[in-house]
Amino acid sequence: xxxxxxxxxxxxxxxxGPVDREGTLLAPPIVAPAQSSDASSLxxxxxxxxxxxxxxxxxxxxxxxxxxxxGTVDGARGEVIKSPNLPxxxxxxxxxxxxxxGLPVVLENDGxxxxxxxxxxxxxxxxxxxxxxxxxxxxxGGIIVGGRLYRGANNAxxxxxxxxxxAGGLACRCGxxxxxxxxxxxxxxxxxxxxxxxxxxxDPGGALLTLRKHGGLHGAAVxxxxxxxxxxxxxxxxxxxxxxxxxxxxxxxxFDPQMIVIGGGVSGLxxxxxxxxxxxxxxxxxxxxxxxxxxxxxxxxxxxxxIGGALVAWEVLSGSRDAAER
Length: 326
Fold this sequence. Notes:
Elements: E1 3-9, E2 13-19, E3 30-33, H1 39-56, E4 62-69, E5 72-74, E6 79-83, E7 88-91, H2 93-101, E8 105-109, H3 110-121, E9 130-135, E10 139-145, E11 148-149, H4 186-194, H5 207-213, H6 219-227, H7 231-255, E12 259-263, H8 271-284, H9 289-292, E13 294-297, H10 304-317
Helix pairs in contact: 1-2, 3-10, 4-6, 4-7, 6-7, 7-8
């Protein structure tokens, strides 16, 4: 059985797994932390994880690597132009990894890869106009228009996380202010919870305060408390959902998509995140989009970027770069 190793390289982790031509993940992925202190450490960690995967998934005969990377990438040249959450700038990442692992390496933006995966094998199968947001350490995005992945004139489309939702707002790592990423990401969720940690009414039992004191107040911890019904955590989720709604209104009005898919680690909040975001869209977007657009959680979860990266590699190997046209 032939496979492609799909790789999802994010701000905090690397996930690698074997994927077949239809977008099926053939084995549980290897997950390792991303050594993102500098470019050299990142590349060493990525190479080491890939070599481990080649050995562990040998029975699936990996023939190439499809790498989904956070940031602005030029897939045709295999370069990461800029990644706000990774120490990469004008980096020929595909060529460097190809030398290191001895297999063809295809590079794609992680948001593009994720929306491709959801259209081919996930929540949006059969749809031709789809937008996806990936909510994690940062906020990524991908756009399918008329059944084709939309990359833009300079292969840089889909940077939805850097859509400005608040003029003059918080400084973003991209160098600008007020980006959606600063208001609808995992770190934003932690920030909203941190602001409630000293209020006994919002933090009964002091769970948020304890996490804050011990450096454990991050997005995943807040999500866990929200699922347990913690008042402050639920308020933090609602605040994030409001900002997500602002972004979704702009996407609905601009693209009039059939579906907006929400993925990434923060999407694990499920309906507690989506229900208020949907309501915001219904109340603020323009018709007919506000009444027609579906807003759904990614069916492929945290594996969407990995699977999409592999699908892009499969399509490049077969001579086409648009798996969404199947």
